[in-house]
Amino acid sequence: MDDSIIRVDSMEPCQPKALLAIPTLLDLPAEIRVRILESVFAGNAYHDGLKTHEATGEAVLDEAYSVNAFLQPLLSCRQLYADGSLLAFNRTAFVANSLFVTNIIPERLETLHDKQIAAIRSLTLVADARHFRKLLDWGEHPFGLQSLDLDTLTIVLHRSSFWHYLFDFTTGIAHLLRSLRGVKRLVFVRNRALVKGSFKAWCNRVIGLIMKFDHHNRYDRSPPQLETVWWTWSFDDVAQRFCLDAMPTKELVDEETYMQQVLPLMEALRDSIENEEWNPDPRSRNGA
Question: Hey, where are the domains in the chain?
Answer without folding.
Answer: 97-286
